[in-house]
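DATA SHEET
Item: assembly model
Revision: 1
Owner: S.N.
Input lines:
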Amino acid sequence: MKKTLPWILFLWIALVIWGAFKYAPLAEGFIGDSSRILFFHVPMAWGAFVGFIAAGIWSARYLFGNRDPRHDRAALASIEVGLIFCILATVSGAIWAKVMWGTYWNWDPRQVWITVAILFYGAYLALRSAVQDRQTRRRLAAAYAILGLVVAPFLFFILPRMTGFTLHPEPVVNQQGKMEMNPQILHVLLLGSSGFTVLFFWIHNLRCRLEDLAESAMFPSQGAHNDR
Amino acid sequence: MSQDISIWTTEALAVFAKEWRCELRTGYALNTLGLFAITTLVVMSISLGHLGIASTEPTTVLPVLLWILLLFAVSAGLPRAFVFEEESQTAIALRLSARPSSLFCGKLAYSFSVVLALEIIVTPLFLTLMHLKIETMPVLLFALVAGGYGLAAGGTLVAAIIAQARSSTTLFSVLALPVLLPLLVLAIEITRSAVAGDPAPIASRQLLLYDGSVTIAGLLLFPAVWNP
């Protein structure tokens, strides 16, 4: 499975690229081909959100479980990969905004909250670098990531809806809980979101394995899994 | 059970009393917070008075300035609550004297009282110097109490996290801002409603939800953060 997954993923993402350019029609109300970038922008934003949630869950498993360092490394990897997804989602969104709104940045509520998410990810990494003792670092970083899980619903759901005014198109599931979207566009978006979720966990797995190896190399006598 | 509650309350009150005793001995937090806020207020007042502000803008701009002022004043003083314990090496004694939940509540009550004291000094000065007219005073009082509580709750938990890190006071702002930003937006929204004369702003419920979420997160996370 470990050897076939990259190939499956390669075909999956290739299918998303083909779907974005050949299968899905141009969306109504968008300038030129600009709607095609959304097949990558939305899944990357989704991947960033998954990273946020996964980091919180792994941190909770570390803090309230048996303090297994692998859970902490999984949380760290989630934040790192999530941060890359978050930056890519922001950049792709800014490129789309330039075509549609004539400016890269206009402080749209969703742009604001993705910026706050980047700040949160950055703060988590800053906290880790400011604590020398490994066990204290893991404990404090886990607590902060869980705190992020508490704040996330306000950032992603409550505040963008409360502000009211937004230039952003309706999300896949609109505020009435319905999907009002061309079926072909919807197919590619769902294929892209699921594909990018698998991509997220594949990169995450590689990052965790690298961290395990680095930990074993640095502390060979303790082993990567038993340095609690 | 009732004895447990009684011991818990005694511990929390003892921590609260100890904090105020230390504060009255040195006057650190009140002096720092108060002078920081007043200095910033004077700078704002001189800058805005000199440059002038359009008659339609105060409703939009001034509530933002009030909450930024409070947030930065809190960032200057609140981290001290736990950093002081680590610096003076009294943290171990405190760990032995009170259970984590009562300690957290005692520290939170102290932080909240300091923020309230700050608001009592700063808000009337701000309203007078900036000529900001409040239409519905109960709404402003609600924003100050609920917003002040949120600042204290989020600030106390982040202060506990950063106390065990290097360059902790700088780190407080980096870690606290993404956590406190939703609160800031909600409190600004309610203050704007108070200026506009709206008797029941929608953001009130969200602010209470934020306060409740952060308090529960604090009670859950603090034992893990505090106990090595």
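QC remark: Chain A has a mean pLDDT of 84.
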